[in-house]
């Protein structure tokens, strides 16, 4: 077949930055400094400082292919480093500061980070791990001159701003193959060591373009987006890139992620869309409810990372008129791979029925395909009932882990470790993770479904369900509840509530009331911790 006659230009992140500077140069980036105040500048300023950083990294002796780590909040310096590092042909390795220090040391050494950028907040952490990361030749504090006592003792210490001040803002971004590695993110490693996912420029650019579509984030200069999802968690679902493709004002919350701070930032900056895991929204809504507040500008919120409880979707939509965009993705899928949505027909359904649909993880976005398979790897019917392991493939799905010697793929598909159903319209629903699923008397109980129902009770702030061993049934569900402040709720009441809403054999025998549930580094409930204590 003859080739078409079109130009072939590589899809590179420097191209995204150049586009944003040229088209949206005056669009604002607002960023919470680690020490508190707000900092504001424009896309053009960000592009200029990214070029300065590219020089600064070169002055430290770095070259294309080197890896630069970051241990940082969502802020403008972290944003500049996303573009400067990848744009120079180096790899941006975002580290989750809430990993166990041993795991942090492991990923910094495994990735072979040569420079690590860190926020002052994490100085004690850096001090504790630096000696065990011998390959790191510079630790760069993201901020003013490192003068505080907290930084004393950190080897090869540099100040980011001082490095930039000395650097020229003229820099020619190199051109290279779009399949070059741009960024690296490790899975959280709940079992064994974390595994590295090495994103290509091509994967990120395609994902960023796709994320701007109206059914996804709908990014344009009309929008102001606040990614609460951390820049160390799957590149903040690629929002630092997609906002530059679409031209939306970008608001970065720094370290202040409590409900009151987020609400204040949303209101003062006119945020129209936000993105984060459900536990963040639970805290935000608790604040808003307690103080009888309203959202004056926020119209949509993108939620993922774990199942968004239907009760929370209902609250956002019915009380606050905020549309919930419920997506599914994982470190291995670069960012969002499926997104819940209503068809035109479903828009005329009663609110509760609409919310049932939106609680599902939805349809694949362009560029991704999914299927579900049984234990033998055979495709299972798309009937919305039969569940199996979710498999995924597409332009921004992992093929092999960083330095991995075997491919995780099965017949070209990535096995997600999630149990799901897909219906005839292609709508996917996550039922559980393989490791969370509860098998009782040969039947499966979805912990997500049970949690969702428990969260409908007005006295319940948080809920989690795990399977515990049972001599008769193999496993039985055990329910954990965190009550809302000042609410009274006893076991019998919540179990009665569940009995009215789920099959009798799904109802747990026991409830454990806790003051808080263990949350992992990305704000998700850590069932592995609950299992350790209660299994
Ligand atoms: P981890 O949660 O293991 O740290 P990731 O951040 O990569 O790693 O999370 C990916 C997993 O999160 C998915 O495999 C799935 O189990 C879960 N997940 C993500 N989005 C959703 C969602 N909308 N509903 C339910 N589970 C989700």
Describe it for me?
The chain has 535 residues and is α/β, with parallel strands linked by helices. Among the domains are: 13-256, ANL, N-terminal domain (Rossmann fold), CATH 3.40.50; 436-535, ANL, C-terminal domain (GMP Synthetase, Chain A, domain 3), CATH 3.30.300.30. Helix content is 29%, strand content 24%. It contains 16 helices and 25 strands. Strands 2-1-11-10-12-13-14-15-16 form a nine-stranded mixed beta sheet, with helices on both faces. The termini are far apart. The relative contact order is 0.09. The model has no long low-confidence stretch (mean pLDDT 94). Bound molecules: adenosine-5'-diphosphate. Residues 187-188, 190, 304-307, 326-331, 361, 416-418, 430, 433, 522, 524 line the site of adenosine-5'-diphosphate (ADP).
């Amino acid at each position: 077949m003859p080739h078409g006659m079109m130009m072939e230009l590589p899809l590179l992140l420097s191209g995204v930055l150049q586009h944003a500077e040229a088209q949206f140069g005056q669009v604002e980036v607002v960023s919470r400094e680690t020490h508190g105040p707000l900092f504001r500048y424009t896309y053009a300023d960000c592009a200029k400082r990214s070029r300065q950083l590219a020089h600064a990294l070169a002055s430290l002796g770095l070259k294309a292919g080197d890896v630069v780590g970051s241990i940082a909040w969502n802020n403008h310096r972290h944003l500049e480093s996303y573009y400067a590092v990848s744009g120079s042909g180096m790899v941006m390795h975002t580290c989750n500061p809430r990993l166990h220090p041993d795991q942090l040391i492991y990923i910094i050494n495994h990735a072979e980070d040569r420079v690590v950028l860190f926020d002052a907040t994490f100085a004690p952490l850096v001090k504790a791990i630096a000696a065990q990361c011998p390959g790191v030749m510079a630790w760069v504090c993201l901020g003013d001159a490192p003068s505080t006592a907290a930084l004393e003792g950190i080897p090869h210490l540099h100040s980011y701003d001082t490095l930039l001040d000395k650097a020229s803002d003229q820099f020619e971004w190199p051109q290279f193959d779009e399949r070059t590695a741009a960024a690296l993110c490790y899975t959280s490693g709940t079992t064994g060591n974390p595994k590295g996912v090495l994103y290509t420029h091509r994967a990120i650019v395609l994902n960023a373009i796709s994320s701007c579509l109206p059914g996804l984030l709908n990014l344009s200069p009309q929008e102001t987006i606040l990614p609460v999802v951390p820049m160390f968690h799957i590149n903040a679902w690629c929002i630092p890139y997609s906002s530059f493709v679409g031209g939306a004002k970008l608001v970065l919350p720094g370290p202040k992620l409590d409900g009151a701070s987020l609400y204040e930032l949303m209101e003062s900056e006119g945020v129209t869309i936000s993105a984060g895991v459900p536990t963040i929204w639970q805290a935000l809504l608790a604040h808003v409810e307690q103080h009888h507040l309203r959202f004056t500008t926020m119209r949509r919120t993108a939620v993922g990372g774990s199942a968004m409880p239907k009760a929370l979707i209902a609250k956002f939509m019915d009380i606050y008129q905020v549309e919930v965009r419920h997506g599914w993705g994982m470190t291995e899928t670069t960012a969002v791979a499926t997104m819940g949505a209503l068809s035109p027909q479903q828009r005329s359904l009663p609110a509760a029925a609409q919310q049932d649909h939106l609680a599902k993880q939805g349809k694949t976005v362009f560029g991704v395909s999914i299927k579900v398979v049984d234990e033998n790897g055979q495709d299972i019917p798309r009937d919305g009932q039969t569940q199996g392991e979710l498999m995924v493939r597409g332009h921004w799905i992992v093929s092999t882990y960083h330095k991995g010697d075997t491919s995780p793929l099965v017949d070209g598909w990535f096995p997600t470790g999630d149990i799901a159903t897909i219906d005839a319209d292609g709508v996917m629903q996550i039922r559980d993770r393989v490791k969370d699923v509860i098998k009782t008397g040969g039947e499966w109980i979805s912990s997500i479904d049970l949690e969702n129902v428990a969260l409908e009770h007005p006295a319940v702030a948080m809920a989690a369900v795990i399977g515990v061993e049972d001599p008769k049934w193999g496993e039985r569900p055990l329910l954990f509840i965190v009550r809302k402040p000042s609410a009274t709720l006893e076991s019998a009441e919540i179990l009665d509530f569940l009995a009215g809403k789920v099959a009798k054999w799904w109802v747990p025998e026991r409830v454990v009331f806790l003051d808080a549930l263990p949350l992992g580094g990305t704000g998700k409930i850590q069932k592995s911790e609950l299992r350790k204590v209660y299994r």
